[in-house]
From TrEMBL:
<dbReference type="GO" id="GO:0031267">
    <property type="term" value="F:small GTPase binding"/>
</dbReference>
<dbReference type="InterPro" id="IPR058584">
    <property type="entry name" value="IMB1_TNPO1-like_TPR"/>
</dbReference>
<dbReference type="Pfam" id="PF13513">
    <property type="entry name" value="HEAT_EZ"/>
</dbReference>
<dbReference type="InterPro" id="IPR001494">
    <property type="entry name" value="Importin-beta_N"/>
</dbReference>
<dbReference type="InterPro" id="IPR040122">
    <property type="entry name" value="Importin_beta"/>
</dbReference>
<keyword id="KW-0677">Repeat</keyword>
<dbReference type="GO" id="GO:0005737">
    <property type="term" value="C:cytoplasm"/>
</dbReference>
<protein>
    <submittedName>
        <fullName>Importin N-terminal domain-containing protein</fullName>
    </submittedName>
</protein>
<feature type="domain" description="Importin N-terminal">
    <location>
        <begin position="22"/>
        <end position="102"/>
    </location>
</feature>
<comment type="similarity">
    <text>Belongs to the importin beta family. Importin beta-1 subfamily.</text>
</comment>
<keyword id="KW-0813">Transport</keyword>
<keyword id="KW-0653">Protein transport</keyword>
<dbReference type="Pfam" id="PF25574">
    <property type="entry name" value="TPR_IMB1"/>
</dbReference>
<dbReference type="Pfam" id="PF03810">
    <property type="entry name" value="IBN_N"/>
</dbReference>
<dbReference type="InterPro" id="IPR011989">
    <property type="entry name" value="ARM-like"/>
</dbReference>
<dbReference type="InterPro" id="IPR016024">
    <property type="entry name" value="ARM-type_fold"/>
</dbReference>
<dbReference type="GO" id="GO:0006606">
    <property type="term" value="P:protein import into nucleus"/>
</dbReference>
């Protein structure tokens, strides 16, 4: 044991050479005699004579050889533990239990080890008495504070991590321990906080207890009492419990709302501590989300001629006059950089309230908007504009039009405000109007002031210009929609629209914005190209000459980039150039979709020459430019309308087909005979160790595109594809949150793995193919969980894609998927995306949540 203690000391010495030697020793010890190594680690962990940091190191090593994130490693660890002699396992379990209450540091590493062991043994219906031991530790009057606290920590971890019928069967003793620890009579804040955290993790587990009125009353009592604890951490966690309960058990809340939940959350919203106020706001946002879901389900039930299973209690409407004044005042607490969490949460809550209460929100919120719209205090002025923009998805068309008619001209005037936050929110609100009131925002008298104001905004701070790009996109869609309603040609395209006279100028201003020296800030360059693409997509017939001219401008820009590429030295300059190439190729795609077939031959050779150069220079490099270039090539094929072009082009650009197999969907019949050859080529790319690492993610994404193209016929490639995708997903780990390059690569890898999984799930939806899919579901959910756990390190776009994959799995697999996707991290990601301003994230998360709720109500 003394030798092991010395080695463990070196793992935390801070000396790299010592750490390397020590970790190698531990690795060899685990290999040479795993049972003895495990026993000795547990002995060191339990030894009160050993210094605390060595005990903690022993516990960490013990935990790390029992748990893993990767499914294959997890399986190996599980089998290795179960294969140990029963007496060895018993010794280790006794030692970790004995460690509880003896540690001098928080949180307890012994609690984590107990969770790790239970996670394996519960699957085999073993060591279930550990729950009873932990409960006894908590409820025994003679137990020390640390013993109670660490035992509750262990229970909390187990509730959070273990998915097994065995732990569900032990819900009663778990709940007994948690309630005992949460009591207001408990003198220790540490114990009470650990119990409240455990309750937060146990709420899904105690469904049957919640259905019992007497038990539910006790649970609600201890949680509500904890929201009044002097310790702010306990209060925040207890409020988090109420937030979660409102999502899980809305239909049981009527008897608690008026006397408990309403006053508790109102008080929380007014609290000066941001964390407490935030949870009060989150509570009412969750109420709104549940009532929106119930409204959608009621509508579906009515269409089917049946009664809905649950009905809304309309808490949001009843609380509206009480919570709205608090929310609007909180909106005005924003800071310069819009980082104040309660203020941001209030904007989301106002938006959800508007969707729930519809016309009812207008009267109580209008005084705040009108009184502060012209305020000299920028906080209140910005808050008034934010409130206005946030309610636009709620009121009926008649009320909405009346509101917007009164506000739009003053709103345009605020684009000249001195404060950046006011201008930023104002231009966002104009974009909201474009999304909701197409006919009003496109009136000539409105556009006369709006267009110059948006052009000015494009030249302001990047955050303002970013929202101006979105407002222009919304305006273009609105104008096209209004024009299309008046009549279109056989291709569904209107002859003209209200923006035709300024279309050229709008294109010019957006192109100028893409060239700003600060265009990388706030994703402005991406936003301006996206706005340009939207403008082209929504262009009528009389703007075709501008489309042709813009095509030549884009081609010229691509030529210029190709000419200067060789003169660039730094990696960052080269990466920036390739990003710009990618955006230009994406813009070219939009332009080609609008081109007339007869006009393409005149420029097709030039387009192909440039795109082939882009692909040749990008392939194998740190860039996705080859992807967008290939899509542009396939747009040419589409314009020509000749499916035979697939085979002709295949030989010359085979090396680049990994960039975007999605284009194969258009020619599924023609390419089916080529698939064996193409798959062989794709696997060759993946196996090639000399190919740059960022090429392979695009190859992985191809599996999903090929699956969609082939449908059920993809089953012959399923196992090979899934092996590659699963291995790649397991490798997509962020080991250093400060390493930007690593984060970007992991993002790319995860995005394409999710794309691959999504295509395969959608291709194999048939009853006959579902059996082939089921063995791979756990691995797909593991990737989703990794994205969710990465939090802000995962982009909104990636989280949206993950939400979409959850929805596809839920609709394909059915009820067996629920325990896998209803984890804390995944549910938080869904909530975040539901409340996002990003339409893709919001739409996918809302759809997925509805599908999950529908399944749950069938149980």
């Amino acid at each position: 044991m003394s030798e092991l203690v010395q080695i463990l000391e070196k793992t935390v010495s801070g000396v790299p050479t010592d750490q390397t030697v020590a970790l190698e020793f531990l690795k060899q010890a685990a290999t040479n005699n795993f049972p003895e190594f495990l026993k000795q680690l547990s002995v060191v962990l339990a030894s009160t004579e050993t210094v605390h940091y060595v005990r903690q190191a022993a516990g960490l090593q013990l935990k790390n050889i029992l748990v893993a994130k990767e499914e294959e490693t997890k399986r190996i660890f599980k089998e290795r533990w179960i294969a140990l002699p029963a007496d060895v396992r018993q010794i280790v379990k006794e030692n970790v239990i004995r460690t509880l209450g003896t540690e001098t540091t928080r949180p307890s590493i012994a609690a984590q080890c107990i969770n790790a062991i239970a996670g394996i043994e519960f699957v085999y219906e073993q060591w279930l008495n550990s729950i009873d031991i932990l409960m006894s530790n908590v409820t025994n009057p003679s137990s020390t504070e640390k013993l109670k606290e660490s035992s509750l920590e262990a229970l909390g971890y187990m509730c959070q991590d273990i998915i097994s019928p065995a732990i569900e069967a032990k819900a009663n003793p778990i709940l007994t321990a948690i309630v005992h620890g949460m009591r207001k009579e408990e003198p220790s804040d540490h114990v009470r906080l650990a119990a409240t955290n455990a309750m937060l993790n146990a709420l899904e587990l105690i469904k049957q207890n919640f259905e019992n009125p007497d038990e539910r009353n006790i649970i609600m009592q201890v949680i509500c009492e904890a929201t009044q604890a002097p310790n702010p951490q306990i209060r925040v966690t207890a409020l988090q419990c109420l937030v979660k309960i409102m999502s899980l058990y809305y239909n049981f809340m009527e008897q608690y709302m008026l006397k408990a939940l309403f006053p508790i959350t109102i008080e929380a919203m007014k609290n000066e501590t941001d964390e407490i106020a935030l949870q009060g706001i989150e509570f009412w946002s969750n109420v709104c989300e549940e009532e929106l879901n119930l409204a959608a389900e009621a509508e579906e039930a009515q269409e089917q001629g049946i009664a809905p299973q649950y009905v809304s209690c309309h808490y949001s409407k009843g609380a509206l006059p009480h919570i709205l004044p608090i929310l609007t005042q909180t909106l005005a607490k924003q800071d310069e950089d819009n980082e104040n969490e309660p203020a941001k949460a209030s904007a989301v809550c106002v938006s959800l309230l508007a969707q729930c209460t519809q016309d009812a929100i207008v009267e109580p919120i209008l005084p705040f908007i009108t009184e502060n719209f012209g305020s000299n205090n920028w906080h209140y002025k910005e808050a008034a504009i934010m409130a206005f923009g946030s309610i636009l998805e709620g009121p009926s068309t008649h009320i909405l039009h009346k509101l917007v008619e009164q506000a739009i001209m003053p709103l345009i005037g605020t684009l000249n405000d001195a404060h950046v936050a006011v201008r930023d929110t104002a231009v966002w609100a104009i974009g909201q109007i474009g999304e909701t009131c197409a006919d009003l925002v496109t009136r000539p008298e409105t556009l006369q002031s709006l267009i110059p104001a948006l052009f000015t905004a494009l030249n302001q701070e990047p955050r303002v210009a970013f929202n101006a790009c979105w407002a222009i996109s919304s305006l273009a869609k609105a104008a096209y929609q209004v024009a299309a309603e008046e009549g279109t040609d056989e291709n569904g395209e209107p002859a003209t629209f209200i923006l035709s006279s300024v279309f050229q100028q709008m294109v010019d201003e957006l192109i100028k914005t893409t060239d700003r020296t600060d265009a990388k800030t706030a994703n402005l360059r991406i936003a301006s190209y996206e706005a340009l693409m939207e403008l082209i997509k929504n262009s009528p017939q009389d703007c075709y000459a501008v489309v042709q001219q813009t095509t030549l401008i884009v081609l010229k820009k691509l030529e210029q980039l190709l000419n200067i590429e060789h003169s660039l030295v730094s990696a960052s300059d080269k990466a920036q150039l390739r990003d710009l190439q990618s955006l230009l190729c994406a813009t070219l795609q939009s332009l080609l979709r609008k081109m007339h077939k007869e006009d393409v031959p005149a420029i097709s050779d030039l387009i192909m020459a440039i795109l082939l150069q882009v692909m040749q220079r990008c392939v194998g490099k740190e860039s996705g430019g080859v992807v967008e270039a290939l899509v542009a090539v396939t747009e040419l094929i589409t314009v020509f309308g000749n499916g035979n072009a697939v085979r002709k082009i295949y030989g010359s650009i085979q090396a680049f087909l990994i960039g975007r197999a999605s284009q194969l969907r258009r020619f599924s019949r023609q390419i089916f005979p080529l698939m064996d050859e193409f798959m062989a080529y794709l696997l060759k790319i993946l196996e090639n160790t000399t190919v740059k690492r960022t090429v392979k993610p695009h190859a992985l994404g191809c599996f999903g595109d090929i699956a969609i193209a082939l449908g059920a016929n993809f089953s012959r490639y399923l196992n090979t594809s899934m092996d590659w995708l699963v291995n790649a997903a397991s490798a997509a780990q962020i080991s250093n949150p400060d390493d930007i390059d690593q984060i970007e690569y992991v993002e790319l890898l995860r995005e394409h793995c999710i794309a691959g999984f999504t295509g395969i799930v959608n291709a194999l939806r048939g009853q006959n193919e579902l059996a082939l899919l089921l063995p791979h579901v756990q691995n797909m959910v593991q990737l989703i969980d990794m994205v969710a756990r990465s939090g802000s390190l995962s982009s909104e776009s990636l989280q949206a894609s993950a939400c979409g994959l959850i929805g596809d799995l839920v609709t394909s697999v059915g009820q067996p998927i629920l325990p896998l996707v209803e984890t804390e991290q995944i549910l938080q990601m869904l909530q975040k995306c539901r409340r996002s301003k990003n339409s893709k994230a919001k739409t996918l998360a809302q759809w997925t949540t509805r599908e999950i709720n529908r399944l749950k109500k069938q149980v």
